[in-house]
Design a protein that fits this description.
The complex is a heterotrimer of chains A (about 350), B (about 270) and C (about 325). Chain A has about 350 residues and is mostly helical. Chain A has a domain of about 240 residues. In chain A, about 70% of the residues lie in helices and about 0% in strands. In chain A, helix 3 packs parallel to helix 8 and helix 8 runs antiparallel to helix 9. The radius of gyration of chain A is 21 Å and the shape is globular. Chain A starts with 12 loop residues before the first helix and ends in a 5-residue tail after the last helix. Chain B has two domains: about 160 residues, Rossmann fold; about 80 residues, no CATH class. Chain B contains eleven helices and ten strands. In chain B, a hairpin with a 2-residue loop joins strand 1 and strand 2. In chain B, helix 4 packs parallel to helix 7. Chain C has one domain. A two-stranded antiparallel ribbon of chain C has the order 1-2. In chain C, a hairpin with an 8-residue loop joins strand 1 and strand 2. Chain C is globular. Chains in contact: A-B, A-C. At the A-C interface, helix 6, helix 10 and helix 12 of A face helix 5, helix 11 and helix 13 of C.
Chain lengths: ~350, ~270, ~325
């Protein structure tokens, strides 16, 4: 009885086209934003910021990026961490060599550089698809791994890089709370932009290519434009996420920080969270970030001690099992379960 | 009835589409052999023939999905034989598919809106911000799509994912999406396959309305002879990739070769 | 024909030129060159062993088994650990049994529910299997480095001393590996061509539904295919493990097999061999001869070309000839 659309009639296309047409959804979103921006900073400890919230937000950004490409446009990529690396190293080099640049500019420029690289490695998608494309994207991963490890200029001739702390218009972003708020702002803006893209005609183009590319061509959609823009926008998001990951989360990193494991983690996030859903990207990121911690705390709390060496292996097994579980039971991931929940809520307390 | 078809006949204009000597082969299999026929503006042209005669292949050739080894297609004064499908779409030829090619991950509304894509041109940055021109464009095209939704009477299903609709309604959405591209020529590949009598009547009505109200030239592949005889102005008959008949429904009905083809007389 | 295949021909010429350059320019002694070549061939054979597993599974079930590498590791771990307390050949037999059980479980739990989904979903499912097996293998068998002792001496042998100055160093183990791989391929060929099961497998690879309609039990076929792939993985694991030691990085080496199947064609066992040899030789050659040049020209930190050569080559192939050298051409009908 709470979640009803009754009485919420739209009298113009503009109002029907708004992002959250149902009043209850708007209230929920407003509440969420209040919690995120106000309540969390007041009540949450530094540890939670560093261990959960900040990585969650940054990985959600990366997951959104990957989701745009894989979930919305149907182009598979299992080497996406390579573009995070491009973003991170671009940001590092820009901040290092042109220190006068505002960090926000650095962030956007890194995204654009990652976008350009992503565009190049997205060219194979014009000729091949499915798992052949997957293997091609691995080429990107390994090549980038090698590039940043061997071409010493990128790392300023050091084995690992550690950039200076971020400063924007005089605001020093170095406490956990500062970092959280900064990343949260970036996330909010970028999520909004992504949502608009997905609702616009480019989003429909992407989904058309995903669902049936032959039919899409026949109604006048150019596959080249759709696929390349998907790669470009996706790599932009992922590049910015990479820069944030390096600067905010890691602080200092080596090339292996952006290896195949990270690529596969991103893929897991969107499979478990829900492909083709921005909300799913958030769910997936939350899942990946909290699972290791749960694995650490829960058995100990239950009195069943597990040696820490085994933790990583157990995590591996659980990931694997969950991937298979979700693929079989709910291929559309947690986002679909959420949607089903909402539909049930619409009818509540009636059964149907 | 005679008055109606006379009025229709009066509206039929010049030739806007012509296939000349089109031959298509896959490996060793010849799908089309030396096909030539034309289509006049505003007419309803039917393509009939036994299964495997090459009818869908012919539509695919017109669409640019298949590129014929020989022959050309003349459309609006331009000759082509290897245009890309999306160029063909942009130049005004739309199509529905026999096996429904709807975008299953989207709602009815989104499917039809995707038909407007070839007319939407605001750049990505503006779309991301969803202000000014991008928003206005979205609203303007939404209006057009709503007009089509009204026309085909599918208002109640706007937000339904297409996969959940019954077959007859899905076919209507397919038609709506093709109409959204504002085509001059509409290629319909067995639009009434799998429908019951009532659905067929509805679909016939819609097709004729499209031809009447929008002046769209219709080329349709159809197996139901009563439909063909009823609504088409001229008919092309294919068999084993060759043209064996071309003319008004009455002319074709009496054609010996056509009768033989359908009765399976070997020749 | 030239017009249609020009990219592949160009690529082939480039590769051959690259191959001949070190010898032609006199940059290396012929004997050393042959050593590197042989080393590359041997590595290539090992890649082929792993790639064969991929090709088999893809051929018969249309599934791309990302987990093949992990299966190699799993089998190797099983053999290595069990051989600590029993004769090697018993360990190998038992490990084979384990792989069959594994095949059965994978077919039941992973493949059967997903049979109607498209290839990418199945690929991701095998990704899940990879992670699962990685974790399970290391919990059950442990995560140290283990040894497999095949009883073949590890000392290299000097041959052809009278033809080339200083002779050529050949590794006995590698040689044995090449022999085993050849025997395996011959056995597989016989299996596919001459036995009823093999014919059934080929039928299934051609058309699932048609095969079912003539009474071939799809599920059993898949169990058999995955078992055969498991067997191939076992052989690969034992050989690789004896050469490199059984450790986690073994499953990563198997990732190299992906470019091999791209080159050779996803559905071709012959292709796996040819592809493996090309990549093995190409990698070694570029690492040894091209590497130092790149390091000097671009002031790089060390070589590591081996890490990406295979993938970039595969990428080029994907662009000009996605079906590989021996694979079936993919036709998209509307």
């Amino acid at each position: 009885m709470f979640y009803r659309e009754n009485g919420q009639f739209k009298s113009s296309y503009a109002s029907d086209l708004q992002m959250l047409p149902i009043l209850q959804d708007r209230l929920f979103m407003a509440g969420l934003l209040v919690v995120a921006f106000v309540a969390v900073p007041l009540f949450v400890s530094d540890y939670l910021f560093l261990a959960i919230l900040i990585p969650f937000l940054i990985l959600a950004l990366a997951a959104i990026g990957l989701n745009l490409l894989v979930g919305y446009c149907g182009q598979i990529s299992i080497g996406h961490a390579a573009f995070m690396a491009v973003g991170a190293y671009s940001a590092y080099n820009l901040a290092l060599r042109i220190p006068q640049l505002n960090f926000l500019v650095v962030l956007v420029l890194s995204g654009l550089i990652a976008s350009a690289v992503g565009l190049v490695f997205g060219l194979p998608s014009l000729r091949i698809k499915g798992l052949y494309l997957a293997v091609a994207t691995l080429a990107a991963q390994f090549f980038m791994d090698w590039l940043f490890a061997r071409v010493k200029w990128f790392t300023n001739y050091a084995p690992s890089v550690s950039p200076a702390p971020i400063e924007i218009f005089g605001w020093k972003v170095d406490s956990p709370l500062d970092k959280y708020l900064f990343v949260l702002c970036v996330l909010t803006v970028f999520t909004l932009l992504a949502r608009n893209l997905v609702r616009g005609h480019i989003g429909r183009e992407w989904m058309a290519i995903r669902d049936m590319d032959v039919a899409a061509e026949v109604i006048g959609i150019r596959p080249v434009y759709a696929k390349l823009t998907a790669f470009a926008v996706s790599s932009f998001y992922v590049g910015v996420a990479g820069a944030l990951w390096g600067f905010v989360q890691l602080g200092a990193w080596e090339p292996l920080a952006f290896d195949l494991n990270l690529s596969l983690s991103l893929l897991f996030m969107i499979i478990i969270g829900g492909m083709g859903s921005l909300l799913g990207s958030y769910f997936g990121a939350a899942f990946i970030v909290t699972l290791p911690i749960l694995l650490n705390q829960v058995p100990a709390a239950l009195g069943v001690p597990i040696p820490t060496a085994m933790n990583a292996h157990l995590e591996s097994m659980i990931f694997g099992a969950l991937i298979i579980f979700f693929l079989i039971v709910e291929p559309q991931g947690l986002a679909r379960l959420w949607a089903i929940g909402k539909e049930k809520l619409r009818l509540w307390p009636f059964p149907h | 009835m005679a008055g109606e078809s006379n009025a229709r006949a009066a509206r039929i204009g010049e030739v806007i589409l012509a296939l000349e000597g089109v031959s298509l082969a896959f490996g060793g299999v010849k799908a089309l052999s030396d096909i030539s026929f034309d289509v006049r503006e505003h007419e309803v042209r039917a393509i009939i023939g036994p299964n495997g005669a090459g009818k869908s292949s012919m539509l695919n050739v017109i669409n640019g999905l298949y590129h014929p080894q020989q022959g050309t297609i003349r459309y609006l004064g331009r000759e082509y034989h290897d245009m890309d499908p999306h160029e063909v779409a942009v130049s005004g030829i739309a199509r529905t598919f026999q096996g429904l090619a709807l975008f299953r991950g989207m709602t009815v509304l989104d499917n039809i809106m995707s038909g407007r894509n070839l007319k939407m041109h605001t750049n990505i940055l503006l779309q991301a911000l969803r202000i000014g021109p991008a928003l206005r464009e979205e609203i303007a095209h939404r209006e057009v799509v709503e007009g089509i939704i009204d026309f085909l009477e599918i208002q109640a299903y706007r937000r339904t994912p297409v996969g959940r609709l019954p077959y007859g309604l899905q076919k209507r959405v397919d038609l709506a999406r093709a109409l959204a591209t504002e085509p001059r020529i509409l290629l319909l590949d067995e639009p009434m396959a799998g429908m019951n009598l009532e659905e067929k009547q509805d679909m016939c009505r819609f097709i004729l309305d499209v031809n009447d109200q929008f002046g769209t030239t219709i080329v349709l592949i159809e197996h139901d002879m009563s439909v063909v005889m009823d609504i088409s102005d001229r008919v092309v008959v294919l068999d084993y990739g060759r043209k064996i008949g071309d003319g008004t429904p009455d002319e074709v009905r009496g054609n010996r070769a056509v009768i033989d083809a359908y009765l399976g007389v070997s020749h | 024909m030239l017009k249609k295949h020009w990219p592949v021909i160009l690529l082939g010429i480039a590769l051959l030129v690259g191959l001949a350059l070190p010898l032609a320019t006199g940059a290396s002694a012929p004997g050393f060159y042959i050593e590197v070549l042989l080393g590359g061939l041997m590595t290539g054979v090992l890649y082929s062993l792993v790639a064969m597993g991929f090709a088999l599974i893809f051929k018969a079930s249309g599934v791309f088994n990302f987990a093949q590498g992990t299966m190699v590791l799993f089998a190797a771990l099983a053999v290595a650990r069990m051989a600590e307390s029993m004769p090697l050949w018993v360990a190998i037999l038992l490990a084979m049994g384990i792989m069959v059980v594994l095949a059965f479980l994978i077919e039941r739990i992973v493949l059967r529910p997903l049979v109607n989904q498209e290839g990418v979903a199945l690929l991701m499912a095998t990704l899940g299997v990879t992670y699962f097996l990685d974790g399970l293998g290391q919990i059950v068998w442990g995560s140290d480095v283990y040894e497999i002792n095949l009883g073949i001496g590890k000392e290299p042998v000097m041959i052809l001393q009278n033809v080339f100055e200083g002779g050529i160093l050949v590794n006995k183990e590698d040689f044995a590996a090449a022999l085993v791989a050849t025997a395996l391929v011959a056995a597989l060929a016989v299996f596919f061509q001459k036995t009823p099961t093999g014919r059934a497998l080929r039928a299934v690879a051609d058309d699932h539904q048609a095969a079912q309609s003539i009474g071939i039990p799809l599920n059993w076929i898949w169990v058999i295919v995955w078992s055969v792939a498991g067997f191939v993985a076992l052989v690969a694991g034992v050989i690789w493990g004896s050469k490199l030691g059984v450790q986690f990085s073994l499953s990563q080496v198997a990732l190299k097999a992906l470019p091999v199947v791209i080159l050779g064609g996803f559905t071709s066992v012959t292709g796996s061999i040819v592809g493996g040899l090309i990549i093995g030789v190409g990698e070694k050659m570029s690492e040894v001869f091209l590497g130092p040049i790149l390091v000097k020209t671009f002031d790089l930190a060390g070589g590591g070309i081996e890490n990406w050569f295979a993938y970039v080559l595969a990428l080029l192939f994907l662009l000009v000839r996605p079906e590989g050298l021996f694979g079936e051409k993919l036709i998209d009908r509307v």
